[in-house]
Write a structure and sequence with these properties.
Layout: H1 2-10, H2 15-34, H3 44-51, H4 56-66, E1 71-74, H5 81-86, E2 90-93, H6 102-105, H7 115-125, H8 130-134, E3 137-141, H9 145-154, E4 160-163, H10 171-192, H11 198-222, H12 231-241, H13 246-265, E5 277-283, H14 292-298, E6 302-308, H15 313-316, H16 327-338, H17 350-362, E7 367-373, H18 377-392, E8 397-402, H19 409-424
Parallel strand pairs: 1-2, 1-3, 3-4, 5-6, 5-7, 7-8
């Protein structure tokens, strides 16, 4: 802890205010994760990481910077990590999942802005997140109007690069996205001082494909009726993947998947499959440490077996074609893979509805919970067509809206409890 305080101080953080966050986090981790029974032993890695989330990985990033590497802070799954890794850069997600950061964000953003955006800005301006202090450059994207304006604020004192994500998925849009990735690569080369070659980009593509495969193995295990892992633990794994070294992440995910497959074979689940309803969650992504919805669901008689969101299946589904031998071919292959993600920013976005129904069947769910953060108009607007499609597919659905406050926890618990009772009936 002493070393962490020294590190935080040297980063220019508000250590006194940050202490208030540090005092709350251990209790939350204990209540949400450590209180569970019969957890996979392999979760010890993620327990270690989250128990010192502002210490272990930040220290690694700082050491890498001393060795000449550059750190790129990102906000979205559309930023192509392959390009950054190919230039020997490091990718880290940026914090934005706690009410703790929202008040500082509201000093410069309207209150009726998505809490994810307010928290991200507040984490930087309040100087209480080491990842925002460490990153040499932030990389944003045009998937949300609120984020686009927030990037202007963040760019006032930090190098801020924004990628222009197409809003449609025609061939012309995919070609545009390929050009955008190629342009971004020039910026990455400028920041890192390293040239991106087809060989290096090919290696980076392979590294991230291996991570996707490893995470997919864990999710594949969640399809089993045995339910070898809770939704809370799977969510934590996915959230930490945004911050962790990708090679280590692959190793740890494969280690976890090995154990889950063994638990399935031995019929060793974390819940009673005969009495526990299986839930798929879709909607706004859940950044660390946003565990509220999963925790309520899984302490109300159900288990979350899949997340159709950016902190879920969108992060690892679909591999980049590794056959490209030129940068132009590789950029196109990367573009095609990322354009398969069905974010609510696209129009039309029927692919997301198709994904929800497909995943609901693959994961053998009893019901779907569609939840958006307050003031996220994209996912809020899509609730109606999602609900209509699920009703037509005879899949029960509950739509919710929440934020990072705990004030609505009991209301959510009542509605979720009633939904689970309905599924039982």
């Amino acid at each position: 802890m002493t070393d962490n305080v020294k590190m935080w101080t040297e980063l220019g953080m508000d250590v006194e205010n940050h202490d208030n966050l540090c005092q709350v986090l251990p209790t939350a981790v204990g209540d949400v994760f450590l209180s569970q029974e019969n957890r996979p032993k392999a979760m010890d890695f993620w327990d270690m990481v989250i128990s010192d989330v502002h210490g272990i990985r930040p220290a690694e990033l700082i050491e890498a910077q001393k060795n000449g590497q550059k750190v790129f802070g990102t906000f979205c799954v559309y930023v192509p990590d392959e390009v950054i890794i190919a230039a020997n850069g490091i990718v880290t997600g940026l914090c934005g999942g706690s009410q703790f950061w929202v008040p500082d964000g509201e000093k410069v953003l309207p209150k009726n802005t998505c809490p994810l955006v307010k928290a991200s800005v507040g984490a930087r301006l309040g100087r209480t997140c080491p990842f925002f202090r460490i990153a040499d450059i932030y990389v944003g994207e045009t998937t949300c109007d609120a984020k686009k304006k927030a990037y202007e604020i963040l760019g006032e004192d930090v190098d801020m690069y924004v990628m222009n994500v197409p809003q449609m998925k025609r061939d012309i849009d995919i070609a545009h996205w390929k050009d955008e990735i190629a342009t971004f690569s020039k910026k990455v080369e400028e920041v890192t001082g390293n040239e991106i070659t087809p060989e290096k980009l090919g290696e980076a593509i392979h590294i991230l494909n291996e991570r996707r495969k490893a995470m997919a193995r864990v999710y594949e295990a969640r399809k089993s009726k045995v339910a070898p892992i809770s939704g809370r633990d799977a969510l934590l794994m996915t959230q930490i993947a945004f911050f962790d070294d990708p090679v280590r992440c692959t190793e740890m995910c494969n280690r976890l998947a090995d154990e889950l497959e063994e638990r399935i074979e031995n019929n060793n689940g974390v819940v009673d499959p005969k009495t526990t309803k299986r839930i798929l969650i879709t909607g706004t992504p859940m950044a660390v440490p946003n565990w509220k919805l999963h925790n309520i669901i899984e302490t109300s008689g159900a288990i979350v077996v899949c997340e159709e969101m950016c902190t879920g299946t969108r992060y690892f589904e679909h591999l980049v074609d590794e056959s490209g031998t030129t940068l132009d071919e590789q950029y196109m292959n990367i573009a095609k893979r990322y354009m398969k993600n069905n974010c609510a920013c696209f129009t039309p976005n029927g692919g997301r509805i198709d994904d929800i129904i497909r995943l609901a069947k693959e994961y053998q769910v009893d019901g779907v919970i569609d939840c958006n953060l307050k003031f996220c108009c994209l996912y809020d607007t899509e609730k109606l067509p999602v609900k209509k499609a699920l009703n037509e597919a005879d899949i029960p659905v509950l739509d919710l809206e929440t934020d990072y406050e705990d004030s609505d926890a009991e209301q959510l618990r009542t509605r979720i409890g009633a939904f689970i009772e309905m599924l039982n009936a």
